[in-house]
Amino acid sequence: LTVRLSEVDPDRHIWGESLVVSPLNARDFLARIALSIAGRLTLILERQAELGPSPTRPLPLTDILVTRGMVEMRSYTPGSNEAASALFEEALVLEPEHAMAHACLAMARLARQNFRLPDPDALRHARQAVRRAPEDSRCFRALGLAEACMGDLAAAEASLRHALDLNPADADTMSILGFVMTSRGKAAEALAWFDRAFFLNPVPPDWYRQDYAIALLALDRYDDVLGLLRVHPRLKEFGEMRLAACHAVRGEAAEVCRRLALARDKAGTSDLLALIDSISYYDDPASKQHFRDQVALALTMEASFLGVAGRNSLPAGQGYSIAPPTV
After folding, report:
1. Would you say residue 315 has pLDDT above 60?
2. Is the Cα dihedral 174, 179, 184, 185 positive or negative?
3. What element of type H or E holds 51?
4. In 3D, which of 268, 235, 201, 214 has the Cα closest to residue 76?
5. pLDDT level of residue 322 (50, 70, 90 thresholds)
6. Burial of 114 (0-12, 13-18, 19+ CB in 10 A)
7. β-pair partners for 17
8. CB 126 within 8 A of CB 102
9. First to last CA, the chain
């Protein structure tokens, strides 16, 4: 069955998909179509907002600043989160109660430190956003992220589930909820949320894949992590560490060394295990320890391969001149 959603005036194709239907799951099929359409319309509306005001629909200056900040954040370029934060702060000077400015500033602040450390100011902005716009799922998404980084994973899960009650077609929130469930030691449940997120947003931003890889690695699905991340254009330090762990299991010592060197350079620190210890978003000690053990295995292989014990304590920036494998 091929389903298509079009806008009559002007004639414009909005959404379409070919599906195989079983008479036994007709109700699920109808729900899937509705969810797909809602998700696509949400993306279209967000992209139209990012294009800025039209001649017939001028936006207030605060909304223009917030829109510019959202576009900056979604560029995922170096310094984009800092630039976006400045725009959101400027909007709040003009309109201190602007809900989306508070929500976006919270997310930008968290992104600036790679969602790794607690940020009480981000939590304060997210709570302010929820107070001002309790009907907006994006505000609860920001609150869930801030609570996760504060280490309150139970509250984060509750906030994100409420965001999905408000907007069941929010793929971004589904992906973040998958990340939170992984951090709570429920990686198998997390995969279902990621699958729904990818279904609703088949061309997602890179961070979907990075969060998905965390769940896959927690389940020891090393080949799947490699397939997901090895061609990733903008891996950060934890992504490099996850790839190193996968290559260690496969016995690929040279690639382990290369990935660990990249991780040290990107993190700006030599002690990768201490970096893992500093992560605030786990409330399941076993899950955090499992990741630590995976990286420790990679570090052991690195030391053995190079014949240098304690390489983990070398200064950041001292990478290895090991050529990448020939493809």
Report:
1. no
2. positive
3. none
4. 235
5. very low
6. middle
7. 3
8. yes
9. 40
